[in-house]
Description:
Keywords: NAD, Oxidoreductase
Pfam families: 2-Hacid_dh_C
Strand order of the largest sheet: 8-7-6-9-10-11-12
Number of strands: 12
GO molecular function: NAD binding; oxidoreductase activity
Number of helices: 9
Protein name: Dihydrofolate reductase
Structural class: alpha/beta
InterPro entries: D-isomer_DH_NAD-bd (IPR006140), NAD(P)-bd_dom_sf (IPR036291)
Amino acid sequence: MDERRLVWTAPGTLADLNDLPRDARAQLEIVEIPADPLADQRLAEVRVLIPPLVRNQADDGYDLKTLIASASRLDLVQALTSGVDWIVDLIPAEVTLCSVRGAYDDLMAELMLAGILAVYKEIPHHAAAQARGRWEPRQVRVLGGSRVLFVGYGSIAQCLEKYLLPFGVEVRRVARRPREGVDGISELSVLLPGADIVVVLTPLTAQTQGLIDEEFLTLMKPGALLVNGARGLVADTEALIAAAERGKVRAYLDVTDPEPLPDGHALWSAPGVFITPHIGSLVPENRERAFAVVRENLISWARGETLRNVVAGDY
């Protein structure tokens, strides 16, 4: 068998990979990951692995780290997620890791926009009042003229900016590497005090874990809105609760630490904090969006072409 052919894919995903062109199908033998992959004789022949959607370890009786390390001819790992913090440390230097970045840009951007508007228009308060059968009007804010600071400026942030601009907002951008129109992270302390809305969309790395800490929150403009659509661990939860309780900031969070957020956790009742349970990509077409990227990369890999969304460095 040609050593470039064997692809192991997550259980239940074969049908998602049926629609490949003839030349790619001729070069790829795609099978589901066996029930006991570490004992399977073909493990050494695997060249592409599409692992289950997991965070730390598969729930299928094997350790994903051991599986990847034991696949001696592995060339490519294709994740089914946009964020790869759950798997990036498991990938050997000689193996390429790809994400499905871009698959959910508009879904995430729509949710972040909805969260911003919900907070600005006091929707959580009015929804709670309706549930109690009470008429309790509260003054709302206008989005136009607000100064928005993006912390992390990838494809989701760019999509959200496109949605926000028609409202008449002013935008500044910060990223790990400065480029035209985007300031470096060293400018964060200068830009935070002037922002009305701070949207955090960084990947989770050693450098961004705990980025939203007490100092970050102290620098924010009093009453400003923090939006976290990145990962829960990007924020120091205790610092965020403390800032909310003293009225320093408001927040919209689609991610939390811990996650899922336990019943009775202080973050649920922190004043001015609106939470959705990580629903950015929770739509019926979620699967197809992800596998459209996966199929594109399988075709490119089979043809020896450039892959999409290669994860490199701190990504």
